[in-house]
Write a structure and sequence with these properties.
It is a single chain. This protein has an eight-stranded parallel beta barrel, surrounded by six helices. The chain is globular. With about 325 residues, it is α/β, with parallel strands linked by helices.
Length: about 325
């Protein structure tokens, strides 16, 4: 699998959102976009034995596992577990605005320790044959990004990292919540572009504030190697992903939200047969028809009905009937 080619466009790892059900839906919308797990801590896998966190459907490929941690040996063991589970890439989280600085530190606080991050990358690479990548911020707190980011990149490149995602915002470890850290620190796209100039052989994807395929295409045309889209891809997945294959990858045809919703029905049946709950899947489908006539009734039908006893695929079919067909794409018969 040519993972770098898929990394042209990716959906960001998002806690509580990009679980296996969400990723299955996103894969139905785009065959080529690279998908990421929620962050899984290395400690949960290595010390906690929580290997169920690694479960995913084969149809999700290409799919990357994001790990959180700061102990090189533990991250190496967790990376090996991820590779054995079949993930196409192992990503180290150096961007989550966590202020936890004890031994379990992970996320953006590691921007202050580029040497440790380099050690983590090297240990993980020694443990697995799949690519090891890093997702970082441009800096934290009072750091000057123009000074610290080139040094940070140089250290991880020297450790063997060949692919990187940069969230083009600082993270404030004190004073801002994780949610505020996604919006309040200003975006600095120009700095990310400068890093591509300084490290021409490093595959750099840009992340932060990007909401449309048109924006993504503009960054690619400007010379970046990839674009990662987060919340927009979750809240309005059809707008971001339905045209991704032909527009960004130049392959295949556009998909439709209707096709994806109908293709989720057997997946939902299988999930329920294994003892799962309908709402665990349909909560990720609420934004599927955003901006379309019937979208509100679609959301309400799923939101109010998914948790009722006996709710199953027929609820999704009922909700789908609330959405008028577009250009004859769906026979509502």
């Amino acid at each position: 699998m040519h993972i770098d080619k898929n990394a042209i466009l990716s959906v960001a790892p998002m806690m509580d959102w990009t679980d296996r059900h969400c990723r299955y839906l996103h894969r139905l919308l785009s065959a080529h976009t690279l998908l990421y797990t929620e962050m899984v801590t290395a400690a949960a896998l290595v010390r906690g034995g929580a290997l169920h966190l690694l479960a995913f459907s084969p149809q999700e490929h290409p799919v990357a596992l994001q790990l959180g941690g700061s102990d090189p040996a533990e991250l190496a063991r967790a990376a090996k577990l991820g590779a054995q589970a079949g993930y196409d890439e192992i990503n180290l989280n150096v961007g989550c605005p966590s202020d936890r600085v004890q031994s379990g530190a992970f996320g953006a606080v590691l921007m202050q320790q580029p040497g440790l991050v380099a050690d983590c990358v090297a240990a993980m690479q020694d443990a697995v044959a799949v690519p090891v990548t890093v997702k970082c911020r441009i800096g934290v707190d009072d750091q000057t990004p123009e000074e610290v980011l080139p040094e940070f990149l140089a250290r991880i490149v020297a450790a063997g990292c060949e692919r990187l995602i940069i969230h083009a915002r600082k993270a404030w470890l004190q004073g801002l919540s994780p949610k505020e850290n996604r919006d309040i620190p200003p975006l600095d796209y120009d700095l990310v572009m400068q890093m591509k100039g300084l490290f021409p052989n490093l595959h750099i994807s840009i992340n932060g504030g990007i909401t449309t395929l048109e924006q993504a295409a503009a960054f690619l045309e400007a010379g970046l190697d990839g674009v990662m889209i987060g919340r927009a891809a979750y809240h309005d997945p059809a707008a971001v992903l339905c045209r991704a294959d032909p527009v960004i990858f130049g392959r295949g045809e556009a998909s439709t939200a209707e096709q994806a919703a109908e293709a989720m029905l057997p997946y939902i049946e299988a999930h329920l047969a294994e003892g799962g709950k309908l709402g665990q899947v349909t909560r990720h489908m609420l934004g599927l028809f955003n901006g379309r006539p019937g979208a509100r009734l679609w959301r309400r039908t799923l939101s109010e009905g998914a948790h009722l006893p006996g709710a199953g695929p027929e609820l999704v079919e009922q909700a789908l009937r609330a959405v008028p067909a577009v250009d004859g794409l769906r026979d509502t018969g």
